[in-house]
Structures are given as structure tokens and as C-alpha cells.
Amino acid sequence: PISDVGVDFLGRASSLSTLWLTGPKVTDMAVPLLGKMDQLNELVLLQTSITGDGLRTLEQLLPACSVDSIS
């Protein structure tokens, strides 16, 4: 599983259009990093520790991206 630090590394990949993240080590600390990835069309979060507030922030930061969270 990836962590918040790994999300920062992925943010440098400007060609990503779809991203699936899995694991409890992805937290609300990753939200600002993910929010900078405006090239994303789809973001799927599987069993992460991102809260409802974090998801709402992501939806605001990435209005053109489909953001889905699966517990």
C-alpha cells in the first residue's frame, strides 16, 4: 500500500489520468497533494483514511475528476 509520501511522488507524474489508491496510510494529509493533480480524470480511493471532509475538498479541488471512495 502507498502512503502520503508516495502520493507526493506520484504527483510528479504529469501524464496520470486515472489513479487508484489503496490503504489506510493514505490520509487527509494527501488531499492537498492529490488536489494539485489536475490532469486526473478518475480518482478511486480504496479503504483509505481520507475522511468525508477530505473527499469534499478533493471534489472541490478536482472538479473535472470523478472521485470515488470505497470502504
User: How widely separated are the two ends?
Assistant: 15 Å
The rounded Rg comes to: 10 Å
- The helix/strand class is alpha/beta
Total strand segments: 3
Instruction: List segments where confidence is low: pLDDT < 50 over at least 5 consecutive residues.
Output: none
Biggest beta sheet attributes: 3 strands, parallel
Question: Proportion of β residues?
Answer: 15-25%
Helix content: 25-40%
What string, H for helix and E for strand, traces the elements in order? HEHEHE
Helix segment count? Answer: 3
Q: How do the strands of the widest beta sheet line up side by side?
A: 1-2-3
Principal-axis shape = globular
pLDDT averaged residue by residue: 93
Describe this structure in words.
There is one protein chain. The chain is of the alpha/beta class. Helix content is 31%, strand content 21%. The chain contains three helices and three strands. The protein has helices at 4-10, 31-35, 52-61, and strands at 18-22, 42-46, 66-70. The protein has a three-stranded parallel beta sheet, covered by helices on one side. The protein is globular, with a radius of gyration of 10 Å. The mean pLDDT is 93.
Secondary-structure blueprint:
Elements: H1 4-10, E1 18-22, H2 31-35, E2 42-46, H3 52-61, E3 66-70
Parallel strand pairs: 1-2, 2-3
Characteristics:
globular, alpha/beta, 71 residues
Task: Give a summary of the structure in a few sentences.
The chain is α/β, with parallel strands linked by helices. The chain has helices at about 5-10, 30-35, 50-60, and strands spanning about 20, 40-45, 65-70. The protein is built from three helices and three strands, in the order H-E-H-E-H-E.
